[in-house]
């Protein structure tokens, strides 16, 4: 059967009014006529004289709302999807999914018109016969028993209540039973009917009204109660939902199934009366059960539904807010938010975090972010925490923005990257040889608090034994502290801090991050000239640290880490976003050469053990870091396809030292970046390498391998002290002299650093003090024993004399 014919029949079969005895109602009839007159006058008041300014303003207010009604935007669910298009979060104020007319079943439309407004197709927004009948019935009966409202009027009323009203007073005004409200409603309904087709009005109405259990609109109602789409609703399902519109709070099939069944059958009775050629079908439908789901099907609101994607969801909302789409807009706008989240990478990050860090630890957390490098954007691929995202504190859950806020005690030696980059920018080459004393005192660079350390001096020692000198590449892989404290003294604290900010640690410039008033952390470190900055002892934003890796992997191109690929509005149009522009923050040759210098950490450096444990064997630039007190630790790594970091820290206001395997608070910490942080990162990414380009190190730039021309240290070994000093000063360096045992007194035996150095920095000459007796020629005769003529002894090898460590 053609249901459209049935729909037309609804408008052709009006329901007749019952008569009320005149003896009981005559005295009220005059009142009804007065109300009718008020209605008519109200409709005409903009044209009538005498109302003046007040009536004109009232008319303007009505016209403004009428224009909004015609526009018809209603709160709708915004859906956040991953890179594969799979939804993982729903943001809404009212759980509503708008659907076009063709995606609503005809049975649903027919049921609603039959029970709510059978003359819907014939009137022009107001059913005058029904309106006056309602006034007459309500007045004669002494109570409100009939509404007389058309679907147009109900749409107006619901729109004012659910969309326009923002306060409790406005919501009360939208539903008050007064002639004034009725007049406004009628005028708006008449305007609406002139501007929209009947099908448009009916579709908007079905997309607007509440259906109980947090459901708004027919699509969500169909899913909530039957688990089907609106286009697939059958006769009894449609009749039930049409009946619930009368009172979605009272007519709840889970708390009042009897009342809902009766109301559904009432709707079917109207269909039997108004569409007689389908009467048998409707009678049969009355014999069926409600058939609702065992419990209402709904979508959790907000990022809580995202589970392990919750941190990413929160960051995406913050990012969108900063880009011009507020949280309120997101919860009402019905946007499709296409994110950059790679579900395969995210799942591996989640699993590796769980494998290496107990999620039930309330005092220790590990976070990890993976960013894709690029010249135009740095898409955020994954974001996770060992803590479960949620609101149940008793289950160790949290919604704190751990992966993208300032947390922990610092990334430790990873900050040596910033010192190295600043030194390279000033002329240092990665082939330069750095001095690695066992201890070092950096004067004028703060105070370490170490007993015996002079005032205004930063005293530092190495964690372990190192050779007295090594190349920049070796130093980055094995991470001796003294070499880099000496280096930051030569480079300067300010250029090093600025380099950290340029490469990605942007939060350091924000006012108040120092913990001392409005001063930024960057300014505080510069003002106090803290040499300890190279050892990373300050809180970090883990996402920013991951983006540092992405900047280096992008040949020195910084871009904000973006979680958003595109936002599409409800009409299918892409929404423009305000985003920070990418910046070339260091020379590409510097970034690429530094990436090569960082390539030994997973081969022979501090992360080699974890790399071997997980079977990691691809070219990777990496750096580990641990704070001096073992209260936080990190691992940063990148290839040409992906970049990121993992970070473990004390997730409490009173963090303590952390021990490894398993992670726990302990009296004397032994956590290092090469332990759980490296294992978590490498373990996660090993399983998704096939999703990225074949890994390869970038090309070297000879300028940054050798160092700049004015950074080349003249070869002065073998010269006397005076000549060597003159050559170095002429080359633009300062000179410091240290004597050591040697045969030819006054001869330069070694220099540090060697190869290249920062122009103007101090070069240390190691000059012989003449204390060693030259060894005899290989075939020389035995030396006579002084004072014993004729007696000779074999020549004994010289006794080694310890070489003093230069300071």
TrEMBL record:
GO terms for biological process: cell wall organization; peptidoglycan biosynthetic process; proteolysis; regulation of cell shape. It holds the Pfam family Transgly. One of its GO terms (cellular component) is outer membrane-bounded periplasmic space. It catalyses: Preferential cleavage: (Ac)2-L-Lys-D-Ala-|-D-Ala. Also transpeptidation of peptidyl-alanyl moieties that are N-acyl substituents of D-alanine; [GlcNAc-(1->4)-Mur2Ac(oyl-L-Ala-gamma-D-Glu-L-Lys-D-Ala-D-Ala)](n)-di-trans,octa-cis-undecaprenyl diphosphate + beta-D-GlcNAc-(1->4)-Mur2Ac(oyl-L-Ala-gamma-D-Glu-L-Lys-D-Ala-D-Ala)-di-trans,octa-cis-undecaprenyl diphosphate = [GlcNAc-(1->4)-Mur2Ac(oyl-L-Ala-gamma-D-Glu-L-Lys-D-Ala-D-Ala)](n+1)-di-trans,octa-cis-undecaprenyl diphosphate + di-trans,octa-cis-undecaprenyl diphosphate + H(+). The keyword Transferase applies. PROSITE patterns: PASTA. One of its GO terms (molecular function) is serine-type D-Ala-D-Ala carboxypeptidase activity. CDD domains: PASTA_pknB. This is Penicillin-binding protein. It comes from Nocardia yunnanensis.
